[in-house]
Specification:
Length: 404
């Protein structure tokens, strides 16, 4: 590195999202990284193959564990999250399961937050427990409750922030410090915030997972997951969790699409966040709305923590209408621009009913205890003109009021 290089200002987020991990000169000058559609790689010699297979020499052996297009994606997302290394997998649940199957064994204990994506919750409470892993559910926004849970001497602590679907915000730095003092490692699901708004590694987390299907991809046209962390952890997850425990390989074309999505990630998340803030303020001021859940609102109990650890407040929000679940259903059915769908982070505004959709796997009594009411509605605010989104929401609210 030259003196001028060492003194150069570090590149910004958007620049790194477009350039890190790829040099056009490595692919005949192609500006866009090529898609390596191959499952198998040839070796120059037997000795060369042995060296690559043993890890003594960099290279590729078989497409299940590594692909050149995937490598660019993994390098780029790790850089954006402030991690040493990354691993791309076939879905968000693949990223979670490959990581946990690698790091845990029979007799280990895990503490999870009480509010998780429905399938994540089922994986912990019904999946891992079948194989001798003990799982403790705690309120990680309550230091005393968390301290009580840590007395079980867990190996790992796992949580989302903001949480799906009610946007609870957990203090990453405080939880990480408390967990590390108890000898536990910390995994954070950063799907809702993305590294544009929040980088848990920088706040003390050991590993970060994403459903890349959501904001990272951003267009509703792929399934993918990523996990980032230390070189040692990621090599272990690749060699065990991906290679033979799950085999949940990301397709080369999916990696290509995710690289495309990352190029506009910062711009998209900024727009999602600005529009969601406007929608949240509109809902909070409307007489048909009982409560709005969005950490960007000053009235939110999570606003101080979110303002400290996030750069903006994201594109997700939730609400409950004064008329309860029936009013909520009528409101959802009256929306004409927004689509009723379970995903999030797409260009389109999406609305869904957690109790009967994404979080139906929770037993009703647990759902209610953990703050996921039957009347809760979750909205993923898209990239449409903000005034059009708000107009659609207002007409649906008026229709639900007239019906009541």
């Amino acid at each position: 590195m030259t003196t001028s290089d060492s003194n150069r200002r570090p590149h910004g987020f958007a620049t790194r999202a477009i350039h890190v991990g790829y040099d056009p000169a490595s692919a005949h000058g192609a500006l866009t990284p090529p898609v390596f559609m191959t499952s198998t790689y040839a070796f120059e010699t037997v000795e060369d193959g042995l060296a690559i297979s043993s890890g003594e020499k960099p290279g590729y052996v078989y497409g299940r564990t590594r692909n050149p297009t995937q490598t660019i994606l993994e390098t780029r997302i790790a850089d954006l999250e402030g991690a040493e290394a990354g691993l791309a997998l076939a879905s968000g649940m693949a990223a979670i399961s490959a990581t946990l199957w690698t790091l845990l064994g029979a007799g280990d204990r895990v503490v999870i937050d009480q509010t998780l994506y429905g399938n994540s919750y089922v994986f912990f409470t019904r999946g891992l427990t079948r194989f001798g892993v003990s799982v403790t559910v705690a309120d990680l926004t309550d230091p005393d409750d968390f301290a009580q849970a840590l007395r079980t001497r867990p190996k790992l602590v796992y949580f989302e922030t903001p949480a799906n679907p009610n946007l609870r915000v957990i203090d990453i730095a405080a939880v990480a410090a408390q967990a590390h003092a108890a000898g536990a490692r910390v995994i954070v699901d950063n799907t809702f915030a993305t590294p544009v708004l929040q980088r848990p590694i920088e706040l003390g987390a050991d590993l970060v997972v994403h459903s890349a299907t959501k904001f990272l991809g951003g267009h509703g046209d792929l399934l993918g997951g990523v996990v980032v962390g230390s070189q040692t952890d990621i090599a272990q997850i690749r060699g065990h969790g991906l290679r033979y425990l799950t085999g949940a390989t990301m397709a080369p074309l999916t990696a290509f699409l995710l690289l495309r999505g990352l190029k506009t990630l910062e711009l998209r998340v900024q727009r999602h966040s600005a529009s969601a803030m406007a929608v949240a303020a509109t809902l909070a001021a409307h007489p048909a709305v009982r409560q709005v859940f969005y950490p960007g609102l000053l009235a939110s109990p999570f606003h101080p923590i979110a303002a400290r650890q996030m750069r903006a407040f994201g594109g997700l929000l939730a609400c409950e209408l004064s008329g309860g679940i029936e009013a909520g259903r009528h409101f959802m059915n009256q929306l004409t621009l927004a689509h009723r769908a379970v995903s999030l982070g797409d260009a389109e505004t999406l609305v869904q009913h957690p109790a009967s959709m994404t979080h139906a796997a929770y037993p009703p009594e647990e759902r209610h205890r953990h703050g996921i009411s039957d009347g809760l509605i979750r909205l993923s605010i898209g990239l449409e003109t903000p005034e059009d989104i708000i107009e659609d929401i207002l007409q649906a609210l008026e229709a639900s009021q007239q019906r009541g």
